[in-house]
Write a structure and sequence with these properties.
By secondary structure, the chain is α+β, with helices and mostly antiparallel strands. About 40% of the residues lie in helices and about 25% in strands. The protein has two domains: about 160 residues, no CATH class; about 100 residues, Immunoglobulins (Immunoglobulin-like, Sandwich). It contains five helices and 13 strands. The strands form three sheets. Strands 3, 5, 6, 9, 10 and 11 form a six-stranded mixed β-sheet that branches. Strands 1-2-4-8-7 form a five-stranded antiparallel β-sheet, with no helix packed on it. A two-stranded antiparallel sheet has the order 12-13. It starts with a helix and ends with a strand.
């Protein structure tokens, strides 16, 4: 019993650590930072993802003393000049809204702060890219994340079980397949359809990385489950499935996500 508790605890720790890593290294995680300007500490958290209707607020904490700021933005991968919007001050922050975009539409933007003849760029000499998505009901999004998380947990637990002296991996493998299938191939396409208008953009219809990762998860664990019926000791295929899954999971979510081509109106993946 103690061994099982320790294995579950280790599987949970691996899953949570991988989830945090994926989150903070992914392209939807805000760009956070601090800088000193005009004798004050400037802090910012610039969003890179927007779900649903309306514009996206961009706020920079500048303190209570008046300061001028400008929000600059343009459509991503479109040859056009940046638009400029003077920011408003509310409390200790400057803020303004990026205009709403169609699903998979992206804007690149940055902020400049001005005091006398001095200007500072936020977040430095680069732009931030934000992607807009259609509205996804919270319940569906939670269900998708919940089943994927559980699938990863069972995947890690099954892999750890395969390392024990007398592994019993058949039931764990079955649960892993079911959880990943529900989270990735049922709720995943629903989220994709609501967010970008397409149910599936992986093989054989496209090269969307997130969809193809999901497909690999289910295929490798399906093979592992099948091998339980045809191999006396499927330890190594289970270990391989668990290793492939954790490696694929560590690739940031949506790193090559859907993008609206403003010239053609088509949503591309890759």
């Amino acid at each position: 019993m103690l061994k099982k508790v320790l294995l579950w605890a280790l599987a949970l720790a691996i899953t949570m650590a991988a989830g945090v890593y994926q989150r903070v290294t992914g392209p939807t995680y805000p760009v956070d930072g601090n800088l000193n300007f005009d004798g004050r500490l400037i802090s910012y958290s610039l969003p890179r993802s927007h779900n649903g209707d309306g514009g996206q607020i961009v706020a920079v904490k500048v303190g209570s003393e008046p300061i001028e700021g400008t929000l600059h933005y343009k459509r991503y991968q479109v040859e056009e000049p940046f638009s400029h919007q003077e920011m408003l001050q509310g409390g200790d922050s400057l803020y303004e809204y990026l205009p709403h975009q169609p699903p998979a539409g992206k804007l690149e933007y940055y902020v400049t702060l001005h005091v006398a003849d001095t200007t500072v760029y936020v977040p430095g000499q680069k732009t931030v890219v934000i992607r807009f998505t259609g509205a996804v009901p919270l319940g569906i999004l939670i269900a998708h994340v919940f089943f994927i998380f559980l699938g990863m947990l069972w995947s890690n637990r099954t892999g750890l079980e395969a390392l024990t002296a007398k592994p019993n991996t058949k039931s764990l493998t079955l649960v892993t397949v079911v959880l990943l299938f529900i989270g990735g191939l049922i709720f995943g396409p629903v989220v994709q359809k609501l967010a970008f208008g397409q149910l599936w953009t992986g093989v054989p219809f496209g090269w969307d990385l997130t969809d193809n990762k999901t497909l690999i998860f289910v295929v490798v664990w399906g093979i592992a489950l099948w091998r339980h019926r045809h191999a006396a000791n499927p330890r190594y295929i289970v270990l391989a499935a668990a290793l492939v899954t954790i490696i694929m999971y560590l690739i940031p979510h949506s790193v090559l996500g859907s993008t609206l081509d403003y010239n053609t109106g088509e949503v591309t993946t890759g």
